[in-house]
Each structure stands twice: as structure tokens, then as C-alpha cells.
């Protein structure tokens, strides 16, 4: 067994034949849980193989182990039902607060105490007897939980709501600035310009939050690999670089366009606190092959049908099909059932071909789309 003072010793966990490894210190972040309490998990230790063995659901355990690694971020795998995942969490005695927040994220009503799973009741009673895990956390871990894991406390949840509100204000401001009538509210002196001052306050908040998250993150390399974190960096840092170097460039049209676009990118951070948006992202990632097939089909149909339509319509008087690229634009409009109406056939042969192409194109495009929809239905359930 691992000694208590050897915090960084590796712990090997065998879950139905699949091996997991982590540090002793990682598990002790939640001492009230089954894995976090060395005394509780002792009976599952195999002296012969020098590892812990659990005859439990392997895919669920992957998410449960990440709960420890991420300082309390609990997310259900998309391919596992909530009932099965809840049973696994109850067995490993995941804290009640984390389970309740997961239910809120997924729109599941909270249960009464008498309806709780026996393991969850045991976890709750032991949590009251044992010291809170927050008392064993370092300041760095507390800051990380405050900024990254809203389910860990009411303060973290309130801060997450406030951050979403500031993102909404920032994006709204970027949109309002493009309205011509809003120019009357601007001032020639930047520090009297309400748009500039509000933007400065919002970006200052984003910068402070970003610095705090960088300092408190457990692994800087993994932090910088996150797409949302990269968006935060490129949305905030350029603004303050120009602010420090030459404030007049902040009023230039080209730079304003770039800043507005970067602020709009912050909308992707909404996915961090929405399970449903995360599902959409996971579906798109799983459907990359289908999407590639979709775009290949579009290109083949556009080139072939556009070329054929060009040769049919090109000889007609006042024909809008003046080139193959123009005809390809018509083909793309037609196959996706959009039809702007800016290019239409004028000959009888062209109209007959258009009617055939509408039916054939819709059927061809629907095949990869159907595959994506089926994946969406499966993962969303």
C-alpha cells in the first residue's frame, strides 16, 4: 500500500480489466469519496498485483477519474445513460453537490433525500462527519475551482454567471458599434467615449481572469492546448498590446474590425457551461468523416451540374449563365434548396434539367446529412 506521506506515488486502478493510473495526491483532493479515502478503498486492493480492482463500468470510470484530475468537474459521457452513470457515481461516493449540479446542467429534477441511492446517502452522512474538502485545498486549487468548476461552490457558480454576462455585454457592444446611428454617442477623446471605456473595463476583467486562470491551472501546457483558452488569449492580449504601444491605433478602422471579430469569438465560451452545446461539438467531432463526404459531394455536384447547365444555357440570349463558375453558384443554391433567384434558366431545356437536378441533388445531399442526424439523435439521448 502507498504511505500517506508519499503524495505523488502512483496508484494503479484496474476497472474490469482496463488499467488507470493516477497520483495519490490527485485522489486525496476529495477525501470523502471512496477513492479519496485510503481506508475505504483498502478492501479493493489486490496484494498480488499491487493494484486496486473494481468490477465496475469502465467508460463511466474514465469520467469519474477526470473528476479528481479536474478538481471537481463532473461530466457524463454522451454514450452512457444518466441512470447508469449515477449508479457508478453513487458507488464511488461522488459528493452530492457535484451530482446535483450535473443534474441541473442536464435539466434533470433533483430528488428528495428519501429517494437517494444508498451509496449516495452514505456519502452524504460521511461528508458531514469528515472535514470539508475545501479545507484541505491549497489556495491555488481554490482559485482554479472558483474560475473553472462552477459546481464546487455557490461563489464559483455566481462568478460563472457573471462571466457569461460580461461575455454577452462584450459581444452586444461589438454589434452595436457597427450601427451607423450609434456614432453620435462616440467622442473624439477616447477616454470620454462610452464605447471605449466600457470596452476597456470588460477587457480588463477578462485579462485579470485570464492571468488568474494561468497562475492557478494545474498544467500550463494542457491549459494552453485548450481551444477556448487560446481564444481568450487572442481576444484579450492584442488589445492591451496596442493600448500600451499606441492608443490611437485602437480607433483605426482595420484594428476595430479585428477586435470586434475577436470579441464575437468569446461566444464559444458559452459551451463551457452548457452540456447541450458540448454535445453539438462532440457530434461535429464524431462526424468529421461524414462532413468531408458532404463537401466532396457538394463539389462534384456543383462542378458537374454547373458545367452541364452552362453548355445548355450559354447559347441563349440574355442568359445569366455567362461562365462555369456562375453556373456552379446556381448549382450550389439549388442543391441546398436555397435559391436566391439571382440566376435562373431561360430555355426550356434548362428548366427541364433544373427540375431533374432539384430532385436528384436533394437525394444525394440527404445521405451524409442523414448520417449526421442519426449520430446527433443517439448522442443527445
TrEMBL record:
**What GO biological process term is on the record, naming one?**
action potential
Keyword Transmembrane helix in the entry? The reply is yes
- Give the Gene Ontology MF terms in alphabetical order: delayed rectifier potassium channel activity
Write out the ranges of the annotated region (Disordered): 113-136
Classify the source by domain of life.
Eukaryota
Keywords, sorted A to Z: Ion channel, Ion transport, Membrane, Potassium, Potassium channel, Potassium transport, Transmembrane, Transmembrane helix, Transport, Voltage-gated channel
List the subcellular locations: Membrane
Gene3D superfamilies given in the database record: 1.10.287.70, Potassium Channel Kv1.1, Chain A, Voltage-gated potassium channels. Chain C
- GO CC terms in record: voltage-gated potassium channel complex
* Record bears the keyword Membrane: yes
SMART domains per record: BTB
Membrane topology for this entry?
Multi-pass membrane protein
User: Which sequence ranges are marked TM in the entry?
Assistant: 159-179, 195-216, 291-312, 353-373
| Domain BTB per the UniProt entry, residue ranges | 9-106
A Pfam match is BTB_2
Q: What's the name of the protein?
A: BTB domain-containing protein
What species is given as this protein's source? Clytia hemisphaerica
Amino acid at each position: 500500500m502507498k504511505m500517506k506521506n508519499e503524495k505523488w506515488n502512483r496508484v494503479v486502478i484496474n476497472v474490469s480489466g482496463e488499467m488507470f493510473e493516477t497520483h495519490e495526491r490527485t485522489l486525496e483532493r476529495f477525501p470523502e469519496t471512496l477513492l479519496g479515502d485510503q481506508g475505504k478503498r483498502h478492501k479493493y486492493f489486490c496484494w498480488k498485483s499491487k493494484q486496486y480492482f473494481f468490477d465496475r463500468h469502465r467508460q463511466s470510470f474514465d469520467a469519474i477519474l477526470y473528476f479528481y484530475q479536474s478538481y471537481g468537474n463532473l461530466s457524463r459521457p454522451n454514450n452512457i445513460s444518466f441512470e447508469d452513470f449515477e449508479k457508478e457515481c453513487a458507488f464511488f461516493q461522488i459528493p452530492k453537490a457535484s451530482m446535483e449540479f450535473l443534474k441541473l446542467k442536464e435539466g434533470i429534477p433533483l430528488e428528495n433525500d428519501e429517494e437517494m441511492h444508498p451509496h449516495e446517502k452514505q456519502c452524504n452522512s460521511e461528508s458531514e462527519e469528515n472535514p470539508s474538502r475545501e479545507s484541505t485545498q491549497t489556495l491555488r486549487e481554490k482559485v482554479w475551482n472558483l474560475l473553472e468548476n462552477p459546481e464546487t461552490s455557490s461563489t464559483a457558480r455566481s462568478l460563472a454567471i457573471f462571466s457569461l454576462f460580461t461575455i454577452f455585454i462584450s459581444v452586444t457592444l461589438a454589434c452595436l458599434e457597427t450601427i451607423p446611428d450609434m456614432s453620435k454617442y462616440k467622442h473624439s477623446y477616447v477616454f470620454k467615449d462610452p464605447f471605449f471605456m466600457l470596452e476597456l473595463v470588460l477587457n480588463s476583467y477578462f485579462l485579470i481572469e485570464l492571468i488568474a486562470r494561468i497562475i492557478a491551472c494545474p498544467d500550463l501546457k494542457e491549459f494552453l492546448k485548450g481551444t477556448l483558452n487560446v481564444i481568450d488569449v487572442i481576444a484579450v492580449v492584442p488589445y492591451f498590446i496596442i493600448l500600451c504601444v499606441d492608443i490611437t491605433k485602437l480607433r483605426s478602422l482595420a484594428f476595430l474590425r479585428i477586435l470586434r471579430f475577436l470579441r464575437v469569438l468569446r461566444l464559444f465560451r458559452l459551451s463551457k457551461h452548457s452540456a447541450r452545446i458540448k454535445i453539438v461539438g462532440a457530434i461535429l467531432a464524431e462526424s468529421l468523416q461524414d462532413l468531408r463526404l458532404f463537401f466532396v459531394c457538394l463539389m462534384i455536384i456543383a462542378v458537374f451540374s454547373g458545367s452541364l447547365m452552362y453548355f445548355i444555357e450559354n447559347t441563349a440570349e440574355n442568359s445569366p449563365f455567362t461562365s462555369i463558375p456562375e453556373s456552379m453558384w446556381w448549382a450550389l443554391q439549388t442543391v441546398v434548396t436555397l435559391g436566391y433567384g439571382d440566376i435562373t434558366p431561360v430555355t426550356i431545356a434548362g428548366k427541364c434539367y433544373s427540375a431533374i437536378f432539384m430532385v436528384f441533388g436533394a437525394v444525394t445531399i440527404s445521405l451524409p446529412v442523414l448520417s449526421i442526424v442519426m449520430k446527433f439523435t443517439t448522442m443527445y439521448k
